[in-house]
Amino acid sequence: MKKERIFIVEDDVIAQEVLKDFIEEFGYEVVGVTGDPQVALSAIELKRPDLVVLDINLRSAKLNGIDIASKIDVPFIYLTANSDKFTLKEAAQTAYVDFVLKPIDSERLKVAISLALQKQSATVEEPKEACLVLKNSNTLIRTPYKQILFIKSLGNYIEVHEKMGRKLIRKTLKEVEELLPEEHFLKTHRSYVVNKEYIEKVSASSIVLSGVKIPVSRSYKDMVRQALDVA
């Protein structure tokens, strides 16, 4: 069964470790931890977690947790050491699912996360299409996994080959690999990652998908055979 994915925004190092340990003990996957608001916003957009655990009082001159909350479109619960009226009033303007006060009680956190995920599951009318989300200059580019045939490395750029064309994006293949689900994608060469769904033919030195021949290098040959269960 797939684990729900949770992202933590907390700038206290000790609190980061405590939260991560608690959440993993609860059986969820922690897909990121940061105390930097800008890093948090970018990572949440790219990783698309099921839930964000968000500290309100970040030590940032520019953005606090409430500012982050107003800019994201995934469910979140707040953490705060302040229960004053001003903080609560500001937080009430955002669509938070729950509030957990510090110091963190593990059982209270567990209940808050469980209820938040249940609520999210109940309100989702239809599943979102799984996408590769990449930032290119100041633009976020979303490409559904099922539209991707293969991705080719061109040094500091990648070429994303799709059913209906291709895109050139300033990212390294290594950066993009980390965002691709292993159950759908396979690396065949240091310069190529392919979508398993479209593989038509496999040989010792190449793979053919949608009529395109992709090389399989020696260093990836055994990995490819194992992944595709080819003798």
UniProtKB/TrEMBL annotation:
Domain HTH LytTR-type: 132-230
GO MF: DNA binding; phosphorelay response regulator activity
Source species taxonomy: Bacteria, Pseudomonadati, Bacteroidota, Flavobacteriia, Flavobacteriales
KW Phosphoprotein (keyword) present: yes
Protein name: Two component transcriptional regulator, LytTR family
4-aspartylphosphate PTM positions: 55
Matching SUPFAM superfamilies: CheY-like
Record keywords, A-Z: Phosphoprotein
Coiled coil residues, start to end: none
Record domain Response regulatory: where: 5-117
Keyword Phosphoprotein: yes
